[in-house]
Amino acid sequence: MRAQFVLSEIGVGLRRNLTMTFAVIVSVALSLALFGGALLMREQVSTMKDYWYDKVNVSIFLCNKSDGATSAKCAKGAVTAQQKEQIEADLKKMDIVETVHHETADEAYKHYKEQYGDTAIASVVTPDQMQESFRVKLKDPEKYKVVATAFAGRDGVESVQDQRNILQNLFDLMNGMNIAALGVMGLMLVIALMLIVNTVRVSAFSRRRETGIMRLVGATNFYIQMPFIMEAAFAGLLGGAVACVMLLVGRYFLIDHGIALADKMQLVNFIGWDAVFAKLPLVIAIGLLMPALAAFVALRKYLKV
């Protein structure tokens, strides 16, 4: 097959269906940009989980003098020195525990004042109202229930809390956004495939005389179909390239500049440029292969000469 002939046929097809080709490029670009964005969002959630789950602790809150009237678990009164020693000793015996830090009521009051010192309620809170606690760092944060089962309900223990629950709502929100992006991507992908099929049908119909002549002189099906497939692949490749640009620009303006989330949310460990560049070959490959396969399937049905 002569490359010059194929290239000339691609040029003719693109010129004849310029508007529909442009629609295909836009649809492919949007769907692949959403696809790449969803992949990056999923990686961002995974990165944040790894970063924060490694830092959060399991907190074992101990009963104080005022808890007896408000909590049935502390009906026997405030935690005793012996109970604290036993809890700490049992924690250090557990294989899953990495470190144990005892936070006194005075330390808890100091931290509370640092966080909420400007609020009205902070002015009436006293150190004796604050709970002592053990801050437990686990080797595997997923094994929180082992600690909760062992210490919840013990004398002197008011509650056992996993700080991951504070972050779980954020992760659930981000996962929901990711699912929504995938849903919109699926819709755009269907629209792009329909446009590709219609573009190929129109192109094949407009060149039915040429393809009929080629069939009469002995051209194979593959030889006849190749220009149409290459047209769709070229449009998809352009759409994939636009999607890559959108991902790069989005990463640049959302995180580094413009909105600059990296400066406004310094506690968040954002994904780097390497994660974005790693997704670009996949976006390009899908942008190239998806339209080509759609065109091949469409031609088997609609290219009748």
In short:
Keywords: Cell cycle, Cell division, Cell membrane, Membrane, Transmembrane, Transmembrane helix. Residues 184-304 form the ABC3 transporter permease C-terminal domain. With 305 residues, this protein is α+β, with helices and mostly antiparallel strands.
Question: If you had to describe this structure to a student in words, what would you say it looks like?
Answer:
The protein is of the alpha+beta class and 305 residues long. It has helices at 3-16, 18-53, 81-93, 105-116, 144-151, 164-206, 208-216, 221-256, 261-264, 273-302, and strands at residues 58-62, 97-103, 133-138, 157-162. The protein has a 4-stranded antiparallel β-sheet. Helix 1 (3-16) packs across helix 8 (221-256), helix 2 (18-53) runs antiparallel to helix 10 and helix 6 packs parallel to helix 10 (273-302). The longest helix has 43 residues, at 164-206. The radius of gyration is 31 Å and the shape is elongated. Keywords: Cell cycle, Cell division, Cell membrane, Membrane, Transmembrane, Transmembrane helix. It is a multi-pass membrane protein. Forms a membrane-associated complex with FtsE. The chain crosses the membrane at residues 21-41, 179-200, 232-255, 275-299.
